[in-house]
């Protein structure tokens, strides 16, 4: 068996269309939409609405840790646009999801990322797409568990949840051969982004599950340029499958 695994697609529909070639199935670990691109300030929903210059200013404030100023700056832009900001965002997200799910190969097993909007997925799913969150599925004789979303941070991305709710999903998955999450376990080398020069949030619940149940693999994304892309904890291989928007190619798992 061979499955291809992607995470942090962020609008990369051109490469996504071929991501399942040569594999029995595709696994997608979320973050499908592109709201703002820290590398290319002209790409994403935010610059589409407000221009690359405003996106650059917004990114600069956040990069400097001036989050209150960034929120105030963003609020002024939204006020100038008129109407309900949620309507503008939802319309743009729907447009991106329509393109992304049209390009998504099948069969595909998917879970949510921290920037995704789960309520909007259902209207775009096609035959052969299965969404799992706090659930398991058998693929080629192995049990795969899926835990979607992210934990609460100062960035306030759309699909962040409380630690307790996240831990409950990890517990619901239980003993599996392969645990698939959007965010990494709480291991510092897996959480530090060497380009952004900051730590992202990882899950203590996932780390505890690894120590207690020792799955063969734990697969995740979220950290785009990690200090370490893989570590071993006991018999468990923990693997960051890569920033798909940047790399344009999937991680391959064979057994």
TrEMBL record:
<protein>
    <submittedName>
        <fullName>Metallophosphoesterase</fullName>
    </submittedName>
</protein>
<dbReference type="Pfam" id="PF00149">
    <property type="entry name" value="Metallophos"/>
</dbReference>
<dbReference type="GO" id="GO:0016787">
    <property type="term" value="F:hydrolase activity"/>
</dbReference>
<feature type="domain" description="Calcineurin-like phosphoesterase">
    <location>
        <begin position="1"/>
        <end position="226"/>
    </location>
</feature>
<dbReference type="InterPro" id="IPR029052">
    <property type="entry name" value="Metallo-depent_PP-like"/>
</dbReference>
<dbReference type="InterPro" id="IPR004843">
    <property type="entry name" value="Calcineurin-like_PHP"/>
</dbReference>
